[in-house]
Amino acid sequence: MMSRSLLIVGAGGHGRVVADAARLSRQWERIAFVDDRYPELLSSGVWSVIGAVAELDSLVSDWGEAVIAVGDNTTRIEILERTKSCGFDIVSIIHPSAQITEDVVIGKGSVVFANAVINTGSELGAACIVNTAATVDHDNQIGDGVHISPGAHLGGNVDVGARSWIGIGASVIHGCVIGHDVIVGAGAAVIDDIASGLTVVGVPARDHI
After folding, report:
1. 17 — pLDDT class (breaks 50, 70, 90)
2. pTM here?
3. DSSP single-letter state for residue 179
């Protein structure tokens, strides 16, 4: 069996959660980080930081596979494209305790964390985060770079545009359409469609001015 090596771009707390999910999946023999705090930062958790983002070109021949662990949605997509252009194979990371229906489509570079659930007919774009204990019910369409925070819950047939952020503990009822670059505040209850670019908070969720 060919040895597999995973390079994670971003060595912060989110990166360590990605690394631990990758470790538990038992797919990679080597896991390390690149981070722009290198060489001041040489380790994160139990994993080594082996270079800065600018050094990706020189690392691809030795590592080959990569995932982006940067919290900001727009930045994560930008770094993903840069990493792909260096020749890395962009992979997705699925925690072994996540429950994902067989027909779910998960885009490259997406991560799904512990106890998350993604149900039948749903599709995630590239570089998405489905965080700890979040749920995505049936037939959701999730755009590139979306972050569904810990404990957030999406009903069936929800459409979320690219780079939107669903806050911790937020809920979105069945059939809602959320535009791109939307921020849904922690604990908010979305009961109507949300236009692109808005920040909404509260119960029910309303535009935050």
Report:
1. very high
2. 0.95
3. -
Three-state secondary structure along 72-138? CHHHHHHHHHHHHHCCCEECCEECCCCEECCCCEECCCCEECCCCEECCCCEECCCCEECCCCEECC
Show the domain range for 111: 92-204
Q: Specify the CATH number for the domain of residue 179.
A: 2.160.10.10
Give 63-73 pLDDT, tens digit per residue. 999 999 999 99
Q: Which residues are designated catalytic?
A: 138
Picking from 73, 91, 109, the residue at the C-terminal end of a domain is 91
Final residue before a domain boundary, out of 64, 91, 118: 91
Q: Are 43 and 51 in contact (CB under 8 A)?
A: no
Total domain count for the chain? 2
- Tell me the torsion sign for CA atoms 62, 64, 70, 74: positive
Please give the order of strands across the beta sheet that includes 123-124.
Answer: 105-106, 123-124, 141-142, 159-160, 177-178
Largest interatomic CA distance in the chain = 56
